Structure formats: C-alpha cells, structure tokens
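Supplementary Methods S3. Complex input for the NAP-bound model.
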Amino acid sequence: MQQHGNTLRDGVSRAVLLDSFGGPEVLALKDVPEPQAGDGQIRIRVSAAGLNPMDWFMTSDAETAARFGLSLPCGFGTDYAGAVDQVGGGARGYAVGDRVFGTALSRAVADHVVLDADGNIASGIAHHTPDGVDDRTAATLAIAGSTASAALDVLDLGPDDTVLIGGAGGGVGVFAVQLARIAGARVIGTGSPSSAEYLRSLGAEPVAYGEGLADRVRDLGAGAVTAALDLHGTDTVHVARELGVPDDRICTIAGQVDGVPAANGANAAPDALEGIARLVAAGRLRVPLAATYPVEDIRTAVELQAARHVRGKVVIDLRPQP
Ligand SMILES: NC(=O)c1ccc[n+]([C@@H]2O[C@H](COP(=O)([O-])OP(=O)(O)OC[C@H]3O[C@@H](n4cnc5c(N)ncnc54)[C@H](OP(=O)(O)O)[C@@H]3O)[C@@H](O)[C@H]2O)c1
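Predicted complex, serialized as structure tokens:
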C-alpha cells in the first residue's frame, strides 16, 4: 500500500456524525479511528466539503434516511475535494498525492473518505481535479454541476433560445445559468429583488420570483421564452406554461409536474463533470462561494444553507488548523 504521512493526530480522524436523524442540532464533530483503504480502494484526505440541500434533507428523519439507504450512526455531506493519501492493493487510476473531487454519499464532511477506485454513486466517486481549480471550488462541483448539466441536456439549448431559470442564483443555478450562456442562450433568471445584481454578474437577466412573474418576464421585452428550468419547486414550470413554452422544453429538478421532464444529476453524461472542471480551470465558469465555515461550525453552515437564500455554494473547510 502507498501511503502519505499527513495524519492529523496519530490514528485519529474527525467526522461529522449523527446519532439520531433531525435538523442541524443533531450534527456533531467527533473523533473516529482513521479509516484505512482496503484492496481496490483509495483514501482521500478531504480538505473541503460542499453542502447541498440533499445533505440535510436525507438526514432530516428516519423514513427519508432509509429511502437513501442511510442508517445510524450516520455521516453527513456528499460533495468533497482533497488529495489521495492511501492507495490500496490493486486500486488502479490513482496515486498518492493526486488531487481529486467527487461524491461520498452522506459521509463527505470528514477528514478522510475511503472509496472504491472503480467507484459508483453508492460507493463514492473520485475525479481528478485539474490544475487551476482550488479545492474549495472543486468541492462544489459534483452534485450541482452534474444536476445542471443533466437538466440542460434535457433542454438542449442553443443560440436561438431564451430560457427562464427559476432559482437561478442557488447552488445548481450558478452552473445552469453559465452553462446556458455558454450554449449561446439568452437567460432570464429568477431571484429575490436583492439578488438582481448578483444574477446579472452570472450572465442572467434578473426577474423577481413570486406572484406576477409571467407579466414581469413579458415586460422584459425578451421576445418568446423558448425553454424553462425550475430549480426551486414548480412555480417556474407553471409560469413557463403560461408563457407558451411546450412541456418538452421545460425541465424541473425540484418538483414533479405531470408531463414535464425531470432531471437528475445521476443521469448526467459520464464526462459532464470533467467538462465543467475544465471550464472552471479555463476561467470560463466560476462558482461563487456564499460562505466557508470551519468544520466546527457545521451547524451554522447547514442553517444558512437550509434557509434557501444562499447565493452560490456553502463550503466546509477541513484543513488541519495550525
Ligand atoms: N434532482 C437532482 O438531482 C437535484 C440535485 C441537486 C439539487 N436538487 C434540488 O434542487 C433544488 C435547488 O438546489 P440548490 O442547491 O440550487 O438550492 P439552493 O442553493 O438552496 O437554492 C437557493 C436559491 O433559491 C432561490 N429561491 C429561494 N426562494 C425561491 C423561490 N420562491 N423561487 C425561486 N427561487 C427561490 C434563492 O434566491 P434568493 O436568494 O434570491 O431568494 C437562492 O438563490 C433543491 O430543492 C434541491 O434539493 C435536485
């Protein structure tokens, strides 16, 4: 086994763990025995973990947790970035020191994660992090980037499109807006009035969500809206229908409406994340970080995320403190 000597304290690792399901109050940072990479596995020293609504949704109650195959004691968080620090026998494709990012379902907010080198969504996935992408940014890419990519695949946008994106400033929105712009589409993005400048900075024409949205979109003089993506619930789906967008050019990731295609990050193209990481490295796509918290402040970080008004992503810092 190859190993790197960057342990925190001998044999001790930290992980956010839950002894019961519930809100942020059940999250606790605990010392655990340092996990070891077995045959065919790699161990990653995590330096940053990105939060997503699914993290606290999955662990909010026992019934929901069971649907995702989670049981107690349970870890927390799924998106991570860091560097490989152990490579088990027979594990191919990684060497100690390789920078990686990816997913480890509900166990990413920890000093170490162990994954199968030929992993999948259930066992965890590691992608190589390109030069030019820092770990905090890399930790935001997997869930939100693959979900935005899967949704845009459904809509197949081009330069003749004007797309209405509901919830455009959130974790998935920042990717969806910029990828739609890269595809050449005109983007109208919904947010609260105070998010208007921020949405503009991403490349979207801002419009306030809520009652009267269809009229406000018409007032933009945007011409026909040809496609729509709902990243928040179902309001944008209904407004898109009101604006004459056909169902097969509407997509939702956060609700269900009969006749409207739903997208899931798990269905993103196999090379989608590498493509997004390359865009970030090239400076063509940026990920705004709404806040970064040390892992000790995990509850505060989750409270901010769960309030659902985050602009961009919330990241947890797991680097050893001096
Ligand atoms: N299907 C999948 O594979 C998949 C994957 C990832 C996420 N999701 C789901 O997709 C949703 C979005 O995820 P996310 O990470 O982008 O969430 P998020 O980061 O929490 O989204 C926050 C954004 O939502 C906006 N928002 C708040 N209230 C709104 C409203 N009434 N109408 C429109 N926008 C509103 C906020 O804008 P203001 O701050 O301007 O108010 C903020 O920019 C979540 O429900 C998540 O569970 C699904």
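The mean pLDDT is 95. The pocket of NAP is lined by residues 52-54, 143-144, 147, 166-167, 169-173, 190-192, 195, 209, 231-232, 235, 253-254, 264-265, 308-311 (CB under 6 Å).
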